Amino acid sequence: MENIVKTAALRLPRLPDLPWQKLAAFISPVALLLLWAWVAKLAIFPEQIVVPPAAVLAAARELWDSGELQMHLSVSLYRLAAGFAIGTVTGLAFGVAMALSRQVEIYFGPLFHALRQIPTLVLIPMAVLFFGIDETLKIVLLVKATFFPPAIAAYDAVKNIPRGHLEVGRVYRLPPLTLFRRIVFPAIVPPVLTGIRISLGRAWLVLVAVELLAADSGLGQMMELGRQMLRLDIVMVGVILTGVIGFSLDKGFRLLERFLLRWKYR
Question: Do the Cβ atoms of 239 and 223 come closer than 8 Å?
Answer without folding.
Answer: yes
